[in-house]
Write a structure and sequence with these properties.
Length: about 90
């Protein structure tokens, strides 16, 4: 397992990325109620909207590949995907 951890600028969420042989997981600790959070993925980008007092806050973060599933529990967003094998043979590039 490979683990990477980054913090977005300012007081943004802590992002963690876990890579396994057959897939990956990106987790972000938002500390927000699941009912106030929506997650959508487009290609290799996750779009997160948090509704609260005032205007909604939207954030985006890059994913290691296309997402297979998303979930929000206990203030933590998880996005999971499968590892894509590169079948390109050396010399065919």
């Amino acid at each position: 397992m490979n683990h990477q951890q980054t913090r977005s600028t300012g007081d943004g969420p802590l992002l963690r990325r876990f890579e396994y042989e057959d897939g990956w997981i990106v987790a972000a600790d938002l500390g927000a109620d699941a009912a106030n959070v929506s997650v959508d993925t487009v290609g290799e980008t996750a779009i997160v909207v948090v509704e609260g007092d005032g205007e909604p806050v939207e954030s985006e973060f890059e994913l290691p590949g296309p997402a297979a599933s998303t979930a929000v529990a206990n203030g933590v967003i998880t996005v999971e995907g499968e590892t894509v094998e590169d079948d390109t043979v050396e010399g065919e590039r």
